[in-house]
Write a structure and sequence with these properties.
The protein is of the alpha+beta class. It is 28% helix and 22% strand. The structure holds oxalic acid and manganese (II) ion (MN).
Length: 593
């Protein structure tokens, strides 16, 4: 065994067990040094696991292709293995932990033979911050190591902070044979443990991200009095230099990265508005000494959806991918050794290789060059609008929490909840059309409470209760105000009714004005809606009458929608918090008025 980087007994004992089980031919501790990263990149290129891209155009950037059967999260094979099935709740897939360990150990046994076991010590959150948590991931994939080195803070410094503590999340990843029939992503919240087998797709194997920072962390947060949420964090700087922070939860592939890095429309830019990105996917939130809620982004990079990212939709994300980035399942332009994806520009390469590894001519082919869920893994420091508070160990104070989904009909552009508990209700009834980020049908509406459906590590009824209890500890004047947005309303011909992207700042502007008490709103059964005159349309080819079309509350359609909520709530039985049942009854009664 290579020299240990720590003398932590709980860790060394755990590693001994895993070596015995997995039988690696070699063991490598990831120390976080640039030399080690370089050596691993070179090794991965020599085996074809990575392709080095054009050093002048894309310095330190690489391309990777996953197996064709392994391109997204697999929700039906993602299990919460709590001792009691009820603790996983009706919206998670559950397996008895004893049975799950046996199944997984049988699959994993001997699977590192002839391979190297990499030991990755990583911190979610700035190393040593009171918000942060430590994990150890073992893996037989260099791709995983190099992605973790971008997405998290990695290396010896993490072990130094860990010291002798037993408070760390155990993560075991085994590629095995990438066999879809034996693919499992298992969380054992009561054991601080994650086991992932037979996958090489980021969301299933970068264990710091969904598995730890959401599933395990949501459970830790419930027990320790804080929250782990599927939320971006952005700072909106006003012309007077003041910055207000907003957390926003949208389901996967619904534009969190775009909103987090938004470029203000011309008129706003001229006045001095700026948007600063603290995080694009995950927020850990806890009460600060002044009684307000503070959030950190536990990640250190962006694992963003490539298709649709371009100079117009998200120049900051595009810029973030220009160095030190790993691209996964995009098209490879052989003429200049760069990458391409649908929606990057109007000039697909003609001499290229598609995401499956086949020759591809973008001018002629009917097939896509990049997979719809192809990704870039980019260091956060590359982002031109990264917030000065990104590394702040105390986090940033939150003024507003925003929920949202992808809904062609029904949900207005924006509305505000009436108070905290009503806001929790608004989050709990979120529905969104499904995307390519998970396997399964795309474009069907499903209920996705707080965008946490695939990520809540325990019973969602208890999770809602936790939200309500957090609210009870907050002085209402200091609690963030809660909103819902929908950028995706369409007319009957399928055209979007709101321009989206940078123009979403117009809605954020209204949200902050509401938080400051600077603007009135109309009270409706579902919440407070803006008056059309209060959304700034300057520079847009849109009238107040156009806006009114997406600031409506259609009573019949909402009554239909609430039937879906009845069905969702009914699944929870006695774990449904009474407060939410009351909120639902109130909205129904108000719709009748
Ligand atoms: C993601 C996801 O990768 O939500 O962030 O799937
Ligand atoms: Mn996500």
């Amino acid at each position: 065994m290579e020299t240990n980087l720590t003398s932590n007994k709980s860790l060394l004992d755990w590693l001994d067990e895993k070596v015995e089980l997995l039988k690696p031919s070699k063991i490598v501790w990831i120390d976080g040094s640039q030399e080690q990263i370089e050596a691993l990149r070179a090794e991965a290129c020599s085996t074809g696991e990575l392709i080095k891209l054009n050093e002048e155009l894309l310095p330190d950037c690489y391309l990777h292709r996953t197996a064709v059967n392994d391109v997204a999260r697999v929700e039906d094979r993602t299990l919460i293995c709590s001792r009691s099935e009820k603790d996983a709740g009706p919206t998670n897939h559950w397996m008895d932990p004893e049975k799950a360990y046996k199944m997984l150990y049988d699959i994993a046994a001997g699977s590192y033979e002839g391979r190297t076991m990499y030991i990755i010590p990583y911190s979610m959150g700035p190393v040593g911050s009171p918000f942060s948590k430590i994990g150890i991931e073992i893996t037989d994939s260099i791709y995983v190591v190099l992605n973790m080195c971008i997405m998290t803070r990695v290396g010896k410094k993490v072990l130094d902070v860990l010291g002798d503590s037993n408070d760390w999340v155990r993560g075991m990843h085994c590629k095995c044979d990438i066999d879809a029939e034996n693919r499992w992503i298992c969380q054992f919240p009561e054991d601080n443990t994650i086991i992932s087998v037979n996958s090489g797709y980021g969301g299933n194997v970068l264990l710091g991200k969904k598995c730890f920072a959401l599933r395990i962390a949501s459970y830790l947060g419930k027990n320790e009095g804080w929250q782990a949420e599927h939320m971006l964090i952005l700072g909106l700087e006003k012309p007077n230099g003041e910055t207000k922070y907003i957390c926003a939860a949208f389901p996967s592939a619904c534009g969190k990265t775009n909103l987090a890095m938004l470029i203000p429309p011309e008129g706003y830019k001229k006045k001095g508005y700026k948007v600063w990105c603290v995080g694009d996917d995950i927020a850990w939130i806890r009460k600060g000494p002044d009684g307000r809620l503070y959030a950190i982004n536990p990640e250190n990079g962006f694992f963003g959806v490539a298709p649709g990212t371009n100079e117009k939709s998200n120049p900051n994300a595009l810029e973030s991918t220009k160095k030190g980035t790993i691209f996964t399942n995009v098209a490879h332009n052989l003429d200049n050794n760069t990458v391409w994806w649908e929606g990057l520009d109007k000039n697909p390469p003609t001499n290229a290789v598609d995401w499956k590894g086949n020759p591809w001519n973008g001018a002629e082919s009917e097939e896509k060059g990049a997979h719809p869920n192809s990704r870039f893994t980019a260091p956060a420091v590359n982002c031109p609008c990264i917030s000065s508070e990104f590394e702040n160990p105390q986090g940033v104070p939150i003024s507003a929490i925003v929920f949202g989904g992808r809904r062609a009909k029904l949900t207005p552009l924006v509305y505000q909840s009436k108070d905290w508990n009503h806001g929790v209700f608004v989050g709990s009834i979120m529905g969104s059309e499904t995307t390519a980020a998970a396997t399964g049908a795309v474009g069907v509406v499903r209920r996705d409470p707080m965008a946490m459906l695939p990520f809540c590590g325990y019973n969602m009824g208890d999770y809602w209760k936790h939200w309500i209890e957090i609210g009870e500890t907050l002085d209402p004047d200091k609690a963030p105000k809660i909103f819902n947005v929908n950028w995706f309303r369409k007319d009957d011909e399928g055209n979007f009714l709101w321009p989206g992207f940078g123009d979403n700042l117009r809605v954020l502007d209204w949200i902050i004005d509401r938080c400051e008490g600077d603007v009135d709103a109309q009270e409706t059964a579902i919440g407070y809606l803006p008056y059309a005159k209060d959304i700034n349309l300057e520079g847009l080819d849109m009238t107040e009458a156009d806006l009114d079309k997406i600031l409506d509350v259609d009573k019949d359609a909402w009554e239909e929608e609430l039937k879906g909520v009845d069905e969702l709530y009914a699944k929870f039985g006695d774990t449904l918090p009474k407060e939410l049942a009351d909120e639902l009854a109130k909205v129904k009664a108000d719709l009748e008025k």
